[in-house]
Design goal:
Layout lengths: L17 H9 L4 E5 L2 E9 L7 E6 L8 H18 L4 H7 L1 E9 L7 H18 L1
Parallel strand pairs: 3-4
Antiparallel strand pairs: 1-2, 2-4
């Protein structure tokens, strides 16, 4: 971990583009892996000017949590875990001038502690880093 690690999650690091979301879930180059209760779908792309190295989105289906309060809590846990651990992807991405888009999808109707969610996000980011 370098001295200039930024523990922020800016607007540019969140995937909002419908085109990119469509590409992420339908492209043949995207890959998927699971660390229950999370599934990560990721796509390695060439980095353009002004684009962050790692961009993410979180999806918590309404079918699992009917109340928005619970869905928002899970999304907050995943975003915080990503924010604290996104540096795990930096070295490989900087060396190859690549960017990665990651979608985290919640797979169960149970809530987990923040420590457990962070552990799963770290597992996924480590495995993604190995595959890049």
């Amino acid at each position: 971990m370098s001295a200039a690690v930024s523990f922020t999650l800016s607007k540019q690091e969140r995937i909002c583009s419908k085109k990119l979301i469509e590409e992420l879930f339908t492209d043949t180059g995207s890959r998927s892996m699971t660390a229950f209760p999370l599934r990560a779908v990721f796509l390695k792309r060439q980095q353009t000017d002004g684009e962050p190295q790692a961009a993410m989105l979180v999806s918590v289906p309404k079918r699992y949590f009917k109340r928005a309060v619970k869905r928002n809590r899970v999304k907050r846990q995943v975003r915080e875990s990503f924010r604290h651990n996104k540096h795990l992807l930096d070295d490989k991405l900087q060396a190859g001038h690549y960017a990665v888009a990651i979608a985290f999808v919640w797979l169960t109707d149970s809530q987990y502690s923040t420590a457990e969610v962070e552990h799963r996000v770290v597992q996924l980011l480590t495995r993604i880093n190995e595959r890049l």
